Amino acid sequence: MAEWKPLPDTLDPDARALVEQLRRLKDRSGLSLAALAERTLHSKSSWERYLNGKSVPPRQAVDALGRLVGADPARLAAQWELAARAWNRQDSPGPGPGPGPRSGPGPGPMRGEDPASVAPPGSAGSRKLWTGRPTRRWIVLAAVLVLVVGGTAIALWTTHRTNASAVSERPAATGGSGRKPLHVSCFEQSCTGMDPKAQGCGDPWTSALTRIDGVYVELRYSDSCKAAWARISWGGVGDVARVVGASGKTEQDRVHYDTDVYSPMIGADTPSDARACTVLTSGAHGCTKPGGTIRLTPPPDPPVSVSPSSPGR
Predict the structure, then answer these.
(1) What average pLDDT does range 272-292 have in this prediction?
(2) What predicted TM-score, i.e. pTM, was given to this entire model?
(3) What are the chain's domains?
(4) What are the φ and ψ backbone dihedral angles of 14, each rounded to 5 degrees?
(5) Which residue from 248, 298, 241 is spatially nearest to 273, judged by alpha carbons?
(6) Which of 220, 213, 256 has its CA nearest to residue 238?
């Protein structure tokens, strides 16, 4: 595995998540930067910039690396889209003096070089999320990207607001050949501390399940968000649902009324990176095993009829 340089502290979490994923895929491929350049349409110097957070990787580069190692294309597409939005936010021009006059034509990109990767180190744009010397072609491409991404974001937001009151959880299907469209607002680490329902993580399933002192404890997982959370049912007011990540990071919530509650999410590349735990007012406590790959059947409704609460996740 390569010894990677630390990424800039100024990277947005969504952009950082994409670069770290690309690094993992490059390590998995076993290819050097030169070999990677030979198998894609992007030069060795371009890949060096992409993998060190110096410039935004084009969608084509991300797709090409994913195909080399058999990565999930839908996951990479969602990750790239979130990173591209972050880049557009960070790269928006702010107030300040305009550029000085040019004394002559500047050096253009080499043949086969990505226009976004030719900004010299230490230039004024190097402290942005992604850097690059704009050329006429790149400006046109960037404008098209902003229009496409912006229109998609508005459409997704409108759809989510329209259907939010009608959304309820259904067990994930185990069959079917089509892919569901992705309507998520976070991905992996950017989901930590967020509400899965509010972020559109609408494909949850139970990856681990146990029972502590009569209370069911579930580890819930979303493939589209790459995040996990805990849910307890058959509990009582004050009982705690807690999710624990591989690094020891925890998020929790407690039952405020009725018999069930779910915790905020933590980013998890796979279900095995998390466990669900509970601490009951009776003093009993315990956790599930790390999540598995088999979709388990959620627990049944409590046998005693109670007033309905908000649907659990």
Answers:
(1) 94
(2) 0.46
(3) 13-91+113-150 (no CATH), 191-287 (2.60.40)
(4) -70, -40
(5) 248
(6) 256
